């Protein structure tokens, strides 16, 4: 029977959280009283995550497990799950249990009301203060740059109608940010509040560097504003530099040469060097993404899909 609901969960080194995740998630899915499938995508885990996923598949029906050929990242793992999902309603969720599976019916009800993309806003976030403050800043800045209207980019508990999933699959860029991409295609998006729990087991896979990289992907993948901002900054700095040069020439003509202000000139020089380096870096981000696209390498590689024979395509 074709499932109505597909739940896609990317898994990467989450063996400590998986037993509780499985028990709670399967209970919620069975309580929906409709055909469902659970798609677990192991993103190259180095612990027992894949083995635990396969054990669950042996015990429960409607479970499909995809094993990736290496670690391709959360969003590519979700894309792999999308390529396997068959449900009319597709839900994504992290494996760390910070987003309770018990909130899944709330997303389904929103999609049944006609919304094609259901975003979520984490209430009473159980994260360190630094991450909460940084998240708020990133959300506001990203909305201004991309023109989107999302209140919480970091929560992956989200729901998508089949049409949106098919459109996302058609996109072939090697780096993407799924919530923002879905928002671009949505005709009737909505955001609902969901609970958020403290991570009790394991550790976050998003360190500072990965978070910065993810936000670069988001900003450069959905807007030209960073490049335009660099251009405008360059023009402004050039105009100010010209004015400063004219001032120095006039001062030399009317007041004579001066030896003071050397350190001021050094400070201005370092400032201009910083602007130049930042501009080159931002330009390099876009050039790097063009380079990734023209290589035409696979975005992800699924090593094997564990499923019933009759489910094989």
TrEMBL record:
<dbReference type="InterPro" id="IPR001173">
    <property type="entry name" value="Glyco_trans_2-like"/>
</dbReference>
<dbReference type="InterPro" id="IPR029044">
    <property type="entry name" value="Nucleotide-diphossugar_trans"/>
</dbReference>
<dbReference type="InterPro" id="IPR050256">
    <property type="entry name" value="Glycosyltransferase_2"/>
</dbReference>
<keyword id="KW-1003">Cell membrane</keyword>
<feature type="transmembrane region" description="Helical">
    <location>
        <begin position="229"/>
        <end position="250"/>
    </location>
</feature>
<dbReference type="Pfam" id="PF00535">
    <property type="entry name" value="Glycos_transf_2"/>
</dbReference>
<dbReference type="GO" id="GO:0005886">
    <property type="term" value="C:plasma membrane"/>
</dbReference>
<keyword id="KW-0328">Glycosyltransferase</keyword>
<keyword id="KW-1133">Transmembrane helix</keyword>
<dbReference type="GO" id="GO:0099621">
    <property type="term" value="F:undecaprenyl-phosphate 4-deoxy-4-formamido-L-arabinose transferase activity"/>
</dbReference>
<protein>
    <submittedName>
        <fullName>Undecaprenyl-phosphate 4-deoxy-4-formamido-L-arabinose transferase</fullName>
    </submittedName>
</protein>
<feature type="transmembrane region" description="Helical">
    <location>
        <begin position="262"/>
        <end position="287"/>
    </location>
</feature>
<dbReference type="GO" id="GO:0009103">
    <property type="term" value="P:lipopolysaccharide biosynthetic process"/>
</dbReference>
<keyword id="KW-0812">Transmembrane</keyword>
<keyword id="KW-0448">Lipopolysaccharide biosynthesis</keyword>
<feature type="domain" description="Glycosyltransferase 2-like">
    <location>
        <begin position="6"/>
        <end position="165"/>
    </location>
</feature>
<keyword id="KW-0472">Membrane</keyword>
<keyword id="KW-0808">Transferase</keyword>
């Amino acid at each position: 029977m074709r499932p109505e609901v597909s739940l896609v969960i990317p898994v990467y080194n989450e063996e400590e959280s998986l037993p509780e995740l499985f028990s709670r998630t399967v209970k919620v899915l069975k309580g929906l009283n409709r055909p469902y499938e659970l798609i677990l995508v192991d993103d190259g885990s180095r612990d027992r995550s894949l083995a635990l996923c396969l054990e669950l598949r042996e015990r429960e029906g409607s479970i499909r497990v995809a094993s990736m050929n290496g670690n391709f990242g959360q969003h590519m793992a979700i894309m792999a799950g999308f390529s396997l999902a068959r449900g009319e309603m597709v839900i994504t969720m992290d494996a760390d249990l910070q987003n309770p599976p018990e909130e899944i019916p709330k997303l389904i009800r929103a999609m049944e009301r006609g919304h094609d993309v259901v975003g979520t806003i984490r209430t009473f976030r159980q994260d360190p203060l630094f991450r909460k403050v940084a998240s708020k800043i990133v959300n506001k800045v990203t909305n201004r740059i991309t023109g989107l209207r999302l209140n919480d980019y970091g929560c992956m508990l989200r729901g998508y109608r089949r049409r949106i999933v098919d459109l996302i699959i058609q996109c072939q860029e090697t780096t993407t940010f799924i919530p923002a991409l879905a928002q671009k295609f949505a005709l009737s998006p909505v955001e609902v509040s969901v609970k958020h729990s403290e991570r009790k087991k394991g550790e976050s896979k998003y360190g500072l560097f990965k978070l910065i990289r993810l936000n670069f992907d988001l900003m450069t993948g959905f807007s030209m504003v960073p490049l335009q901002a660099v251009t405008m900054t360059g023009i402004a700095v050039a105009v100010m530099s010209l004015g400063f040069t004219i001032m120095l020439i006039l001062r030399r003509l009317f007041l004579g040469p001066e030896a003071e202000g050397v350190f001021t000139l050094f400070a201005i020089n370092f400032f201009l060097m910083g602007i130049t380096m930042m501009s080159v870096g931002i330009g390099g981000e876009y050039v790097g993404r063009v380079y990734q696209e023209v290589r035409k390498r696979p975005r992800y590689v699924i090593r094997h899909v564990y499923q019933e024979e009759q489910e094989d395509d």
